[in-house]
Amino acid sequence: MQTVNISHVAEYVDEEVKIAGWVYNKRSSGSVIFLILRDGTGFIQAVAVKGEISDGDFQTCDELTQESSVVISGKVRADKRAPGGFELAVTGIEVVQIADEYPISLKKHGVDFLMERRHLWLRTPRQTAILRIRHEVIKAIRDFFDEQGFVLIDAPILTPSACEGTTTLFSTEYFDSTAYLSQSGQLYMEAAAMALGKVYCFGPTFRAEKSKTRRHLTEFWMVEPEMAWVDLDGNLKVQEELVSYVIQRVLEEKKNELETIKRDTGRLENIKPPFPRISYDEAVEILHKCGVEFEWGNDFGGGDETVLAEQFELPVFVHRYPSSVKAFYMKPDPERPEVCLSADLLAPEGYGEIIGGGQRIDDLELLASRIKEHNLPEEAYEWYMGLRRYGSVPHSGFGLGIERFVAWICGLDHVRETIPFPRLLNRIYP
Ligand code: NSS
User: Fold this and answer.
1) Are residues 282 and 408 in the same domain?
2) Does residue 113 form part of some domain?
3) How many C-beta atoms lie closer than 10 Å to residue 262's C-beta?
4) Are residue 212 and residue 69 in the same domain, yes or no?
5) Ligand 1 centre and the CA of 275: distance in Å?
6) pLDDT, tens digit, 9 for 90 and up, residues 36-77
7) What's the Rg (C-alpha) of the chain?
8) Does 403 sit in the ligand 1 pocket, CB within 6 Å?
9) Does ligand 1 come within 6 angstroms of the Cβ of 184?
10) Rounded distance between C-alpha atoms, residue 419 and residue 6, angstroms
11) Does some domain include residue 428?
């Protein structure tokens, strides 16, 4: 008898098969036991009827607890009323392990309770649907860049210097010196873009963020493309194409999962380029019109971003921030040097910034003076400045945070559910 995945039972109607999985739920009406089995590929109802299987097997079915691991034999029946359209008429059962009383029942639990048991929480239909969507998002991102001729370059995780400011660095002993966990692969992608033209890295990044918000993790995954000979405008075009491509792919490929998590996909369906673009100055005006107190020169907070994004159906680019609120490498606008050729992409529905990027300083002297102004240790950036000594060219790039993107696509109210094992200000377990 063949062992099959639940996702493939449609190919075995009226045949006897084995399904290896876990007991998700059990109901009994005395002479009939209904088991919901899950195997990672799907869920199926297995029906055990007294008298149709051995008394021993029926007794075993009766004793199963939630999450017990089993191999069930049965005949696949097409049944319109069954969830998924099929059920299994049980003919036999092998128990692999009877699970202890499972701490996560099918009723509601608080988030802290679930977070403490994240390794088990992952087994629920909602969490597996989110992780499958995350998988599709990552795959679609990779396909997008690969199809456009970008080369995947892996950036180091242990680094000698900061990319996004020294206040959020995690440090670690590195033999006789100190290393920092990477905040961003950007500086290395700039080097790689000078070698290969169009490159991207995709990896974990780390920030000792003291903020306890719905969009901050201390370990998150970021995709960071970098392109030689591309200016701010070209950079934004790639971003809007990428975001639209990924969303359309998820809508096509992950319909069931979006349904499982009850995502209303109406607004996602309209996400197509071009996205609106407003300057920081215009953004400040909008905030003032909406009655938000905000002083030119500050950075936007989460609440400000929500107000701004609410004015648009599509994600909106905010470009030309004051240089003083952005990282040291941002190229000043030649026409107005107090602002820089940066842009953030703000997602709708209250999700806020999902991308940060911009055009980089390509002039050696200016870069050196910025590194000084930011009090960064020059020795650690010697190699980076060297990129401006040997064939410097205009270049741009950006970073898309996977968790914030997935949170938006899934309509979640916190990024913690978008990553298998979230690392937060007060959580590093399990
Ligand atoms: O700090 S960023 O705005 N930009 C960079 O790191 C650049 N070095 C990227 C580049 O140009 N190559 O972060 C980029 C994105 C941001 O828009 C978020 O989506 C995400 O990274 N991000 C985070 N996600 C989750 N948690 C935290 N703490 C976080 N910080 C940034």
Assistant:
1) yes
2) no
3) 10
4) no
5) 20
6) 999 999 999 999 999 999 999 999 999 999 999 999 999 999
7) 26
8) yes
9) yes
10) 25
11) no
Which of 97, 128, 156 is where one domain is finished? 97
For ligand 1, say whether the CB of 326 is within 6 Å of any of its atoms. Answer: no
Number of H helices, E strands in the chain: 13, 19
| Contacting residues for 195 by C-beta, under 8 A, at least 6 apart | none
Q: Supply the DSSP string of 396-412, one letter for each residue.
A: EEEEEEHHHHHHHHHT-
Note whether 65 and 191 are same-domain residues: no
264 CB-contact burial (10 Å; exposed 0-12 / middle 13-18 / buried 19+): exposed
Does residue 107 belong to any structural domain of this protein? no
Question: 84 pLDDT band (50/70/90 cuts)?
Answer: confident
The rounded Å distance from CA 239 to ligand 1 centre is 14
Q: Is 292 left (phi over 0), alpha (psi -120 to 50) or beta?
A: beta
Q: Which residues pair with 355 in a beta bridge?
A: 345, 400
Q: What is the pLDDT of residue 107?
A: 84
Report the domain count for the chain.
2
Q: Are 279 and 240 in contact (CB under 8 A)?
A: no
- 275, amino acid identity: F
- pTM over 0.85? The answer is yes
Distance 398 CA to ligand 1 centre (A): 9
- Ligand 1, atom 6, residue with closest C-alpha: 184
Residue 281 CA to ligand 1 centre (angstroms): 22
Is 422 a pocket residue for ligand 1 (Cβ < 6 Å)?
no
The rounded Å distance from CA 248 to ligand 1 centre is 23
| Distance set, CA 362 to CA 221, 231, 342, 385 (Å) | 27, 11, 14, 9
